[in-house]
Backbone:
């Protein structure tokens, strides 16, 4: 478990990928964006 492990946050930062352990955008930001889009 470390930088080479794609399933951990540290590994995803090292690889530059996103997923369950490292979301591209936090869940709160997605909800806020969806609410703002619905209003407009």
Residues:
């Amino acid at each position: 478990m470390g930088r080479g492990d794609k399933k951990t946050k540290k590994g995803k930062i090292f690889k530059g990928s996103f997923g369950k352990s490292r979301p591209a955008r936090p869940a709160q930001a997605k909800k806020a964006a969806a609410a703002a889009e619905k209003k407009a």
Residues 27-39 form the longest helix (13 residues). The mean pLDDT is 85. The chain has one domain: 9-39.
